[in-house]
Amino acid sequence: MKQIYVLFFLSLFFGCKTETKTTNMQKKIVIAHRGASGYLPEHTMEAKAMAYAMNPDYIEQDLVLSKDNVPVVIHDIYLDDVTDVAEKFPERKREDERFYVIDFTFDELQQLSVTERFNPKTGVQVYPNRFPKGKGNFKLHSLQEEIELIQGLNTSTGKNIGIYPEIKNPEFHHQNGKDIAKITLNILSEYGYITKKDKCMFQCFDAKELERVRTQLQSELFLVQLIEFPEETKQLKHFAAYADGLGPWYKQILDKKEGTQWKFTTLVEEAHKLGLKVHQYTFRSDQLDEFTSFEEMMQVLLFEANVDGGFTDFPDKMVTFLTR
User: Fold this and answer.
1) What is the β-pairing status of strands 254-258 and 261-264?
2) Cα–Cα distance for residue pair 244/208, rounded to 1 Å
3) What pLDDT does residue 260 have?
4) Where does the record place the GP-PDE domain (predicted)?
5) What 3-state class would DSSP assign to 279?
6) Model confidence over 68-113: pLDDT tens digits?
7) Which residues are catalytic, by number?
8) What is the pLDDT of residue 1?
9) Beta bridge partners of 220
């Protein structure tokens, strides 16, 4: 069934002649956020194949370790908001009523079915107009499996679409005796992702851990410091000492709207002065908030605020916008 999905989406989108022109670091880059997650359940191989066919510059992989140290492509350290783990392994929940990736071997994780994201307490789908919850036959997969898919497609299509891995909650992993950064870097190296010249950007919210990746683990990859909280915007000089890019929440860039014009914080300007690329998150056409349309959102952030690229659940729409 999985192969049928992949072949269907590849045949569907390779028929499109549109190619993104944002292929180098001086242009606006498109990062497929959790794959084509606006159309298929996030971080499934089907969502990654569909994203690839939409011609982004990079495809994102969030990573959490299994019990047997396999980097699993999943957004959170928990399983119960994107899988049927509560039905298949009800006895494996912890005292906090959550099910953790780290408590399962990779073989056990393969037994789970993946679905569109939902609230584990209510069962309600987070994005109601996306792929229907509980439908399809989607599975979890490893970082290695996804890299082989993307590199294989690069070989067969002649493209050079990159990867954009993020290690999730490294401190949690350390507390459980696991070094997710070291394990991930070793795998990336095995597949040829070693320096900034390679089509790989490595990201993390944990500043202490990302600095360790550069200094102690001596990675030469393009490193991106993700930020979420206001106080972190005051640490740009420190981030620039070890990172190459900054990944802010888009609301950290917006200040206020005066009439029809947006005013911005100094975040992007200050980051650029320090030599940091800015890749903001997340462009969603079904979650516009302050904006009247997806086109306005992209125009304001990509060109008026002058970010260098961004994560999007709808890579085809962002590619088309930038091509125009």
Assistant:
1) antiparallel
2) 15
3) 87
4) 28-322
5) strand
6) 999 999 999 999 999 999 999 999 999 999 999 999 999 999 999 9
7) 33, 75
8) 46
9) 195
